[in-house]
Amino acid sequence: VQLVESGGGLVQPGGSLRLSCAASGFTFSSNGMNWVRQAPGKGLEWVPAINSGGGSTYYADSGKGQFTISRDNAKNTLYLQMNSLRAEDTAVYYCAKGVYYWGQGTQVTVSS
């Protein structure tokens, strides 16, 4: 299993970013996926999840209305659209398959 995130960076408050996660080594279209983040000095925080077909999504209260998870099974890619970013969204964002398989993470920094 290999998960490679990209798309992070420095963004001003109120800005947007779209993260991508390229998946390989398993049947992507048969697996639910999720995004998890870890802010500096804090624990892991689960963000949203999506089922294998992409038809069902679930968001933590903190991400509702701000984050959108999606996937393209033809491209074996998971996405996270993040809007109205705030300083407290600064974190390393990981895509995950279940609880055992994670990518290396991509840094998102929200700062003016």
Question: Biggest sheet: strands, sense, closure?
Answer: 7 strands, mixed
- Helix residue percentage: under 10%
Report the end-to-end length measured between terminal Cα atoms: 37 Å
Q: Helices and strands: which structural class?
A: mainly beta
Can you tell me about this structure?
The protein has 112 residues and is an all-beta fold. The chain is 0% helix and 52% strand. It has no helices and eleven strands. It has strands at residues 2-6, 9-11, 17-24, 33-38, 44-50, 57-59, 67-72, 77-82, 91-97, 101-102, 106-110. Strands 2, 4, 5, 6, 9, 10 and 11 form a seven-stranded mixed β-sheet that branches. Strands 1-3-8-7 form a four-stranded antiparallel β-sheet, with no helix packed on it. β7 and β8 (77-82) form a beta hairpin. The chain starts with a strand and ends with a strand.
Question: What order do the helices and strands come in, and which of them pair?
Answer:
Blueprint: E1 2-6, E2 9-11, E3 17-24, E4 33-38, E5 44-50, E6 57-59, E7 67-72, E8 77-82, E9 91-97, E10 101-102, E11 106-110
Parallel strand pairs: 2-11
Antiparallel strand pairs: 1-3, 3-8, 4-5, 4-9, 5-6, 7-8, 9-10, 9-11
Briefly summarize what is shown.
The chain is mostly beta strands. It has strands at 2-6, 9-11, 17-24, 33-38, 44-50, 57-59, 67-72, 77-82, 91-97, 101-102, 106-110.
List keywords for this structure.
112 residues, mainly beta, four-stranded antiparallel β-sheet
